[in-house]
Design a protein that fits this description.
The structure is a homotetramer of 423-residue chains.
Chain A lengths: L13 H18 L19 H20 L9 H5 L24 H22 L3 H30 L24 E3 L3 E5 L15 E5 L2 E4 L5 H9 L11 H10 L13 E4 L2 E4 L11 H10 L7 H8 L8 H4 L19 E7 L25 E4 L16 E3 L8 E2 L3 E3 L3
Parallel strand pairs in A: 7-10
Antiparallel strand pairs in A: 1-4, 2-3, 4-11, 5-6, 7-8, 8-9
C-alpha cells in the first residue's frame, strides 16, 4: 500500500505549514464563538457528533498520527482521550461507541480547549524542528484537511441539533441572509465526451480516494447550467412528487413511507420557511434547494425527465473552473442564488451524482491505520461533488469525492440535472 | 373527585410556608453546586431527565398550578416553557417528548436560573398576599413535595449520567464515603397480623395515592431485621443466582438474558467496586445492596428461602418508627451499614414490596390536571417503601408509596426479606 | 413445596379417568376438523402458536410428566420433540424459541397425529395398569386441565391467524351465530362485604395458583348485573373515548397512541362488523363486548363512572352460581347476549379484574418443573375470571384464575363494572 | 420509454412458445414434488416467500400482464389474488405486505394449483389464437423468464425455511450429492482490456437492465481461473478472517459484529457439515464456497491480496463461453467442484462483482408497470453474474445481471477473485 507521503504534493515549507496550521486551527475555534457551553454537548442523532467531540477528535488526530510518532518526549494530554476521541480507526485501538457521544458531559468544553492548546503548543514546536520532514509534512497536511472536513461537520451537526429545538435558536444570530436574486434560466449544456482522465493529478493535496488518475469513457451528455432551485422543488412537491411511487427508487419509496418525508429536511411544514444557521427564515425560491437525500434528488430528476450526473461527467465539467466557497469568509452559510455569468459548481451545495462510491481502478489506500480514512466506506454510499457553503474554500477541488448514504439529508446536499445525448 | 386542598392537613402559616418554600427551593439549587454547565444537559436514557430540565420543571409546576391561577397579573416567563417543561400533564396541554429532553442545549442553565428567580420572586409576593388561602397553601405544599421528589430524581439521574462516562467522574468529589461498620446479624422479627389500618391518617401532608386510610387483613408473618447487604448479595451471585432460571420470574429471566444482567447496576465487572455519587469506590460488603431491580430482589428472596414484604406488612412495621435520612444533611449519599440498635426502615434504600402499585379501596385522585400526578400510573409497577439516602428527610413517612417498573434499577432500590408464619 | 398430588382432590377412578382422558383428547382433535393442513402451520404473532404446535405440546406434556416417569419401558416418539414442544419448562431442558414456532413446516400434521396416537396408546395402557396410583391420577388430571387450556388457546390462536388474512376465511363456516336477543337493563347489585374466604376449597381439581384458601376483607361494593355490551362500548367510542387521555392509564394511553387502537381487536373499521370463528358477521349490539385489553376495560369503566371488580369481589359473587359455557357443546363460539333471568358470570368472556396477578398469602408452587406452570408469571399481568365461550365447561369454577398482560386482546376478554359503596 | 416488445428478439413461433410455456410451467410444478402441504406456507424471513406464494405470483404475472389485456373475455380466477399475489408493482395497485406472506394459510395449495390450471388453460387458448402477436410473444417470453427467476427463488427460499428447522429435513431426500473431485490449481488469467462492448446484443431475450449495449473501457487485469473453494474459505476463517476489522468494509464489519457471522450461512458450527437441498452433508473442501455475503466475498479477496471483478470484466470473460447449469437437468443442486478443462463461469454460484447495480448509460426501463421490474432497484445493491446451480440453464447468458444487497446470503452466492495488471 502507498505511504501517506505519496498522497501529498506541492509546496509546504515550514513557515507556510505553520501558518496554515494556525489558520486552520483558529478557523475551527472561530466557528464556535457564538455557542454556549451547553451547545457543545448534544448529539441529536447517531450521525451527528457534539461540537466538543469535533474539537477534541481533530486534536486527537494530530496527537495520534503526528505527535506520538514524531515528537520525541511528547506527553499525551489524557490517556482516556485515546478511547473517547477515536472515531473509527480500529488500527489505533478500541473506541467509544458513536451513538453514545452525547452522553458525555465531561471532559468539559474548558478541558477540551486546554487539550487543543496543549497539542497546538507541541505541534508548534514539532513544526519548528521537523517541519521539513516530508512524512511530517504529509501527515500535518492530511490532519489539516481532516480538520477542515470536521469544520463542515461541526456546522452541519450543530445546525441539526438546533433544528430539533422547539425554540428554533440561531447558531449564529448575526449571520446575514444569503443575498436574494433571480435564478437564471435553466439550460442543458453539452458535457465532455470520449476518453478522458479524471482523478487527482498530483499537483496539490488529494485524499487517497481521488487516486489513481485514470482514463474514463464518457458518452454524449449534457449538464444543467445551474442547481435546481427551491422554487423548482416546490413545483415537484405540488405536482404530487412525494405521492407518486413511480418516481422513486424502491428503497427511496420505502423511506418516504416509513419516515413520512414530504419536503426537504429543514423546511417548515407550510413550506414557507427554512431553518438556517442564522435561524428560521423565509424560503428563498431562487436559492438552490438543499438538505435533500439522494432518493429525493433522483426522484426529482425523474420527474423532470432528466437524470443525475455521473461523477466523471461532473468532474470533467468542473475541471477548469475556479473554486469558490462562502464559508467563514463570506459570512453567510447558505447556498446562494444561481448566477448567470459563471458556472457555479463549487461551494453552494454538494451535488448528488448517480455514481456509487467505490474505488478507482488500481486504488490503494494509505498505509496503516490511516488507510481506514476513506477506503472502508466504499459500499452503500453515493458520491457527491463540489463542496458546500460550509466547506472551507481552499479545501475543494474538481477531483474531490465526498460520499453519503442515499438517505442522508443533514448535509448541504442539492441537485444538478443531467441528460443523455447532445445538449 | 377530591380537591387538592383535602389532600393537605396540618400547620402551614404564612411565615412557615414562606420559609419552607425558600428552604426547599434553596436545597434544590444547592444540589447542583458541583456541576459544570455541560453536566446539566445530558439525558442518558429515557427515564433520566437532564438536570436543567428538573430545575425548570419544578418551577413550571409552581408557575402553572399556583401562579397562573392565583397570582393576579402574573407574567409568564416564557410561553415556550409550557411545552418544554410539562412532564406528563395532558390536562395542561401538549408537551415535549420525554426521550428528547437531552436534545435541548437551550434554554441555557443561566436562563433556567433566571426562570427560577422570576418564579421565586412572584411566589414570594403571592405567599405574602394570599399565604393563608387554603387552596394556595395546599398547592404550594404539593409543589414543595413535588420538588423534593425531583431533588431525589436529580441526584439519581445525574448519577446515571456520570456512570455512563468512561472517565467515571464524581458528581460531588467532596462527598465522604458512608461510614464503614459491621452488619448486624439478620433475624426475622414477627410482624403485625390481624385487621389493621394503613394509609394516610390526615395529620400531615400526604399524596392522594396514600388515601383513603382503610382496613387490611394480615396473616402471620415476619420481616427481616435489616436490609440485605452487598456481602449477602455477592453470595447469591457466587452461588449462580444469575444463571438459575428457577429462581426468577419469567419476565425477570427474560431481562437477565436480554440485558446480560449479572450484578447490581453500578458494580464494577470484577464486583470489587461500586460507582457512587462520590465516584467509584471499594464495595462495602456490610452496606445495604442497592440499584437492583424488582426481579433481582424477588430472585434473591427466593434463593434465600424467603419472600418480599407486602406494602401493608411494611407500613405497619414502620408506623411507629422515627423517620431518618441522610440526604443533604448528612453529606454522604449512599445507604449506610445496618445498625443493631434501631430498626432502619427509612432513608437508606427504597425497599421493594411484592405489592403491585394500585389504588386503595375507595381511592379518588385529585381534581383536574393534578389528578394525573399519581393515579394514572397504577398499572405494571411495584410499590416501594421507606425512601432512600437521596430522599429529603422531611419528605418521608410510613404511609408514603413510591412505585417503579420491575426492571428499574437506577434509583436507590434495595431488599428487605419477609416470610410467612410466626418469626 | 407441595407435590402435584396435593393439588388434586376428588373422584378419579380408573374408568372415569380413562373416559375423561379419551373425551378431552378427542375434543381437542374435534376442534381441528374444519382445518386444512396449511392452517396448522401459521403463527401470526409471538403470543400465538400454530395449531399443530398445540396438538403436539399437550401430548408432550403427557409424555414428559406422566409416561416418562411412570410408564415402564415407554419409548419416546421422537427425541427432537422434547426440544420442539417444550413451552417454557426450563426444568425439563432447553426449548425452541417461542417466536419461531411458525417457522416449522415439519413435523407435518400427519406426524403430529401419529405422535398423539402413540402417546394415547401408551396412556391407555398406563391408566389400565396404574390408574389408581394417586400421583398418576394427579398428573393426568393436571394434564387434562392443561389440554383444556390449550383447547381454548387453539381456538383463539387460529382465530387470530385467520383474522390476518385479507380473505377473512371462517375457521368453521358451519358455526351458527350466537342467538340474538335484547340486553337486560344494567344494574349494580350489592356484593359480599366483610371478612370472607376465597381460593380453592379442595373439593375438586384446582391449579396451585388458586391456593391456599384464605381470608380476605372486602369493603362495601356493588357489581354490574351483566357484562358491558357492544352497544355500550360503541357509545364510549362515539363519545371520544379513544381520544381523551384523561380516561386512560398512562401505559394504556401510550398503547393507544403507538398502536393506533380505536376499537376492539376484531371489529371492522366501520364498526359494523366483527370477525368471529364463523367468519365476519354483523356486530350484535346486545352481545357482550370482547377482545378488549385491560387498558380499554379500565378506560371504559372510568368513562362510565365505575371501576373494574377486584378478583375477590368477583369470586365471592360467583361462588354459588352454576357454571355454564358454550364451547363445543353449544356450537356457537361467541359470547351470548345477556339474559335477565340468571346472573351470567361464566363462559362468555373472561372478565378483567383490577387485581394484579400475584401469589395468595402462603402460596407454594408445585414441586419440580411443574412448579413453573403458574408461579413464575406472577408479575406484570392482570387476573381475569369466569372463562369464555371457548373454555370447556367442566374446566371452569369460581376460584379459577387466569391472567394476561394488560395489552392482550386476542383472547375473549370483556368487561364487568363495579363500584364502591352499597348498590 | 421502450415497450416490452423491444426487449425481446429471436424465434418464438406459436408452437415453440406454447411448448416452452408448458415446459417452464411444468418445471416449476416439478420442483415441488417432494414437498408436503405444510411446507408451502412458511416464510422464514422477509426476503423469503412461501412456496405457494411463488406458485401463485408467477401465475398472477401471466394473468395481469397477458390475459387481462389480451385475452378477450378472460374471467379472473379470484379478485382478491390481485392484492395477495402482486409483489411490488405499484402501477397495478395495492399489495399485501411482503413480511406478512407467511401469515396466509389460505388460499390452500390445492386452490393455488387450481389457479395455475385456470390460467394455463386460458394461456393455452390465447397462444393458439394470438401466439404470433409480437406484444403477446414479448410478454409471454418475459413471463417465462420471470417464472424461471422464481424457480430459483423457490428453491433458495425453501432451503432457507428448512434450514431453520432443528430437524434439518431435506427438501429433496433423493438429491444426489454433487460429484466429489479435486479443485484445480488457482491461477490468474489475463482479462480483456481496452475499449469493448457489453450488454445485450439483441439476438436473444434480455431484461431491460442489460441494455443498451455500450462501450466500456477496461484496464489490464486478470481473473481467477476458478471459484474460491470451501477449503480456501476455511483457511481464511482459520487465519482469523472474521476477527480482523482491517479486512472488512465498515458496513461489513458492523454486520459481522451485530449478527455474529463467523462462517457461511449454512455451515454447521463445527465447520464440518453444510446444509444442502438434500439435507445436511459433509462439507466438500473442493467445492465452491457459497452462501456468503458481498461483505464476506470482499473481505476474503482483501485477505487473499486480490479484489472482486467488475461486472464488465466478468461479462467480457464470459462472452464466448458455453452456458451450463445443473438445475433440474442434473439432479444435484449444489455447486460442483472446479474442473480444469474448461472455464466455469456459469451455473454454479452467482459471482459477486465489485460493481454497484445501476443503469447502463442510456438505460430506459420498460413502459408501464413492467418498468418496475428492474429499474427501481438500482441503488444499494451489488451486481452478481453467472447464475447458480439453481438457475435454469436456458435462463442464463453472459449479459445477465442479477443483484442483491451486500448482506444477502441466502442465494447461492460465491467468490471469483480478480486483480489489477497483467496476469
Amino acid at each position: 500500500m502507498s505511504s501517506t507521503r505519496e498522497a501529498v504534493t506541492g509546496d509546504a515549507s515550514v513557515d507556510s505549514l505553520s501558518s496554515r496550521f494556525q489558520a486552520v486551527r483558529g478557523a475551527t475555534t472561530a466557528l464556535c464563538e457564538t455557542l454556549e457551553p451547553e451547545d457543545f454537548v448534544v448529539q441529536s442523532m447517531p450521525d451527528v457528533s457534539p461540537t466538543k467531540w469535533h474539537l477534541a477528535h481533530v486534536t486527537w488526530f494530530f496527537e495520534t498520527f503526528v505527535l506520538e510518532p514524531y515528537a520525541e518526549g511528547y506527553r499525551v494530554f489524557d490517556d482516556a482521550f485515546k478511547f473517547l476521541f477515536n472515531s473509527y480507526y480500529y488500527g489505533v485501538g478500541e473506541m467509544h461507541r458513536r451513538p453514545d457521544r452525547g452522553l458525555l458531559s465531561r471532559p468539559t468544553v474548558g478541558t477540551v480547549r486546554r487539550y487543543r492548546e496543549h497539542v497546538d503548543c507541541a505541534m508548534g514546536a514539532l513544526l519548528q524542528e521537523r517541519g521539513e520532514d516530508p512524512e511530517v509534512v504529509a501527515r500535518v497536511t492530511l490532519g489539516l484537511n481532516h480538520e477542515e472536513q470536521h469544520q463542515e461537520l461541526l456546522l452541519t451537526d450543530i445546525k441539526h441539533v438546533f433544528a430539533q429545538n422547539p425554540l428554533k435558536p440561531a447558531v449564529n444570530p448575526a449571520l446575514r441572509p444569503a443575498p436574494a436574486g433571480t435564478a437564471s434560466e435553466h439550460r442543458f449544456v453539452a458535457g465532455v465526451a470520449g476518453i478522458r482522465e479524471i482523478g487527482a493529478a498530483g499537483h496539490t493535496f488529494a485524499f487517497d480516494n481521488e487516486t489513481p488518475r485514470h482514463r474514463v469513457l464518457l458518452a454524449e451528455h449534457a449538464l444543467g447550467s445551474r442547481l435546481v432551485t427551491n422554487g423548482e422543488y416546490l413545483a415537484f412537491i405540488e405536482d404530487g412528487g412525494y405521492r407518486d411511487s413511480n418516481l422513486w427508487l424502491s428503497d427511496g419509496w420505502a423511506a418516504v413511507l416509513e419516515r413520512g418525508w414530504n419536503r426537504p429536511l429543514y423546511w417548515s411544514e407550510d413550506r414557507e420557511r427554512e431553518f438556517t444557521l442564522g435561524g428560521e427564515r423565509e424560503l428563498d425560491r431562487n436559492a438552490p434547494v438543499t438538505h435533500v437525500s439522494y432518493y429525493e434528488a433522483d426522484a426529482f430528476a425523474r420527474w423532470a425527465g432528466a437524470r443525475l450526473p455521473t461523477e466523471a461527467e461532473w468532474e470533467l465539467a468542473a475541471s477548469d473552473l475556479p473554486v469558490r466557497g462562502n464559508f467563514v469568509e463570506t459570512g453567510f452559510w447558505q447556498p446562494v442564488v444561481g448566477r448567470d455569468d459563471e458556472p457555479q459548481l463549487f461551494g453552494d451545495v454538494w451535488e448528488w451524482t448517480s455514481s456509487a462510491y467505490g474505488p478507482y481502478p488500481g486504488f490503494r489506500p494509505l498505509d496503516g491505520a490511516l488507510g481506514e480514512y476513506n477506503g472502508k466506506f466504499m459500499c452503500n454510499q453515493m458520491t457527491v461533488r463540489g463542496g458546500s457553503c460550509a466547506s472551507a474554500t481552499d479545501h475543494l477541488r474538481a477531483s474531490y469525492r465526498s460520499f453519503f448514504y442515499p438517505d442522508a439529508r443533514w448535509q448541504f446536499l442539492g441537485i444538478r440535472l443531467a441528460k443523455d445525448g447532445a445538449a
